[in-house]
Amino acid sequence: MAASGSAVSVLTPNGRRQTVKVSANTPLLQVLEDVCKKHGFNPEEHGLKFQRIVLDLSLQWRFASLPNNAKLEMVVCSRPQTGAESAVRIALQMEDGSRLQGSFSSGQSLWDLLTHFPQTRTPDLDASGPTPVCVYMRDEVRPALDLY
């Protein structure tokens, strides 16, 4: 394993420990989903806790301020993570440096967001054509294209 590789140990509600290898770009939600899949838990009903702090699952490993070989605990969430949708303000920075902004529901897809702005619409977009890509915190996010 590379020198920059890390691992985390997660204590599950059934008393078992699961070690998960993580990289700097691994989202904490991915760690939770991996453990839940292995032990048969629903990730929407659980969260991760480090010492006494419930972690923000949207963070990547590098931004979570966790030490290598951290010991996390899987806890039952007091409220489901798939809560009510709220309005969020999104800004897209285009390749030319211009910025597009708008308010969206948190439940809208990336494709909905991209097609909202006339500047990002491509009339000849098809399955064999170009696919738009968003870069979020150094991760490439590609929208699922429903072209039926």
Q: Care to describe what's here?
A:
It contains two helices and nine strands, in the order ββαβββββαββ. It is α+β, with helices and mostly antiparallel strands. The strands form three sheets. It has a five-stranded mixed β-sheet with strand order 2-1-5-3-4, covered by helices on one side. β6 and β7 form a beta hairpin. The chain is elongated, with a radius of gyration of 19 Å. It starts with 5 loop residues before the first strand and ends in a 7-residue tail after the last strand.
Layout of secondary structure:
Elements: E1 6-11, E2 17-22, H1 28-39, E3 46-50, E4 53-54, E5 70-76, E6 87-93, E7 99-105, H2 110-116, E8 134-136, E9 139-141
Parallel strand pairs: 1-5
Antiparallel strand pairs: 1-2, 3-4, 3-5, 6-7, 8-9
Task: List the keywords.
2 domains, TUG ubiquitin-like domain-containing protein, two-stranded antiparallel ribbon, 148 residues, UBX1_UBXN9, elongated, alpha+beta, TUG-UBL1, Ubiquitin-like_domsf
- Estimated structural class: alpha+beta
What are the low-pLDDT stretches, counting only 5+ consecutive residues below 50? none
CATH architecture of the largest domain: Roll
Trace the largest sheet across and list its strands: 2-1-5-3-4
CATH topology of the largest domain: Ubiquitin-like (UB roll)
Succession of helices and strands: EEHEEEEEHEE
Largest sheet: 5 strands, mixed
Q: How many distinct domains?
A: 2
Number of helices: 2
User: How would you sum up the global shape?
Assistant: elongated
Specify the helix fraction band. 10-25%
The Rg value, from CA coordinates, equals 19 Å
Count of individual beta strands: 9
Which range does the strand content fall in?
25-35%
Chain-averaged pLDDT: 79
